[in-house]
Design brief:
Strand order of the largest sheet: 3-2-1-4-5-6
Radius of gyration: 25 Å
CATH topology of the largest domain: Rossmann fold
CATH class of the largest domain: Alpha Beta
Structural class: alpha/beta
Number of helices: 18
Largest sheet: 6 strands, parallel
CATH architecture of the largest domain: 3-Layer(aba) Sandwich
């Protein structure tokens, strides 16, 4: 099968996660993503977190699979010119550097557009390039705080909690990828490029828009309410055997309460039609909670999950990352993939969540620093091996 974005070249200046998750998704969809890093050290994500000396961090491997990597000194006039020559042959330039960095390098949109009117510039910033906060730096945690995700997460008597999922980073990256695809589609009609900008605060706020209904309805913000949803008093999570810190399931009661009661052996309670009424369930929440947990504590989270799911009850086992890697459903859907890395050996990671019947891309390892410099400069710009070697010797590449 072909690749959905085959023929699209992304000049990738992204780092850490918000930008790299975007360009990786585009690579997974078939684009040729050329990651540009500074000679000698590369982007900061290569050394982010625990890793063996001399090896790239698993963090870097996670967000840079399927990319080609080259080194280029953008502060060197010759390196900058080589970059602009690549822009001439590219479709998208992607960056999520600190505010003002692209401008200080002399690589603003007008400069890029002058060499390639069709170029699309993707800009991911904590707060965007305009507005009162435009000069402020941000990471995932700040975006979650400023986008309202934290204030609604946790328990009423505790401080706000940062959701573990990096919605500020990867949540922004996925919305940015959609923006790039839309700009590519529009360019098919207009023939010209444009700037695609995604603010991390905007992206998190967008993911939290379901919560905004309460403010619109009552004039009050969403309160922290533990694991309850939609005003229900039920806690949602129930401890399972053998009682470890991750041995829980999450059960929804908005529908299917009789089926739930029958599945846990409470036939007499199931015959009482009042359990189908929200008000009655809320008034007798402790009775229902106690009955459910008395049953769940006798079974593993997987047994509870399968038993209730087969009974038609909305339920989910709380899988930790080890559980996720070994989940048969995730494996069957090729969401857990393995490949051979030149220095790390056999690597297991989470794959592409977008499945397309007419497009398939094999997962490939993240590039070593500068791994494809000779290949890309030769293929795109016609440089010979001797030219590339000279550029490396002079610290340009």
């Amino acid at each position: 099968m072909g690749k959905a974005l085959e023929g699209v070249r992304i000049i990738d200046l992204t780092q850490f996660e918000a930008g790299t998750s975007c360009t990786q998704m585009l690579a997974w969809l078939g684009a040729d993503v050329v990651k540009i890093e500074a000679p000698g050290k590369g982007e900061p994500g290569r050394a982010n977190g625990g890793y063996a000396p001399g090896d790239d961090s698993f963090y870097f491997l996670t967000f840079n699979a399927n990319k080609r990597g080259i080194t280029l000194n953008l502060k060197d006039p010759e390196g900058k010119q080589i970059f602009l020559d690549l822009v001439k042959q590219g479709d998208v330039v992607a960056e999520n550097m600190a505010p003002g960095t692209l401008e200080r390098l002399g690589l603003d949109y007008e400069t890029l557009k002058a060499v390639n009117p069709r170029i699309i510039l993707l800009r991911i910033k904590g707060y965007g390039t305009w507005g009162p906060y435009k000069d402020y730096k941000s990471f995932d945690m700040m975006a979650q705080a400023m986008g309202s995700a934290m204030c609604a997460t946790g328990w009423p008597d505790k401080p706000p909690v940062k959701p573990a999922a990096t919605v500020g980073d990867s949540g922004t990256g996925m919305q940015a990828a959609l923006g790039v695809v839309a700009a590519l589609y529009q360019r098919q009609v207009t023939g010209v490029g444009q700037i695609v900008e995604v603010s991390m605060q905007d992206a998190v706020a967008n993911l939290c828009r379901e919560m905004s209904r309460e403010y619109n309805d009552t004039g009050k913000p969403r309160a922290r309410n533990g694991n309850s949803v939609g005003g229900s008093r039920f806690k949602g999570t129930y401890h399972c055997a053998p009682g470890g810190p991750d041995d829980y399931v999450y059960i929804s009661f908005t529908r299917g309460t009789p089926e739930l009661l029958e599945a846990i052996g409470q036939e007499e309670m199931a015959r009482d039609e009042r359990w189908g009424e929200t008000e009655f369930r809320n008034e007798h929440a402790k009775e229902l909670d106690d009955a459910i947990e008395a049953w769940t504590r006798q079974h593993t989270k997987y047994d509870v999950f399968h038993s209730l799911a087969k009974a038609g009850v909305p339920v989910g086992a709380t899988l930790n990352t080890e559980d996720l890697y070994n989940d048969p459903h995730m494996r069957a859907r090729e969401m857990v993939v393995e490949y051979d890395h030149p220095t790390r050996g056999r690597v297991t990671m989470l794959g592409c969540p977008v499945k397309m019947t007419e497009s398939s891309v094999e997962i490939k390892p993240a590039p070593l620093l500068g791994q494809h410099t000779e290949e890309v400069l030769g293929e795109v710009l016609g440089y010979g091996p001797e030219q590339v070697a000279e550029l490396k010797a002079r610290g340009v590449a």
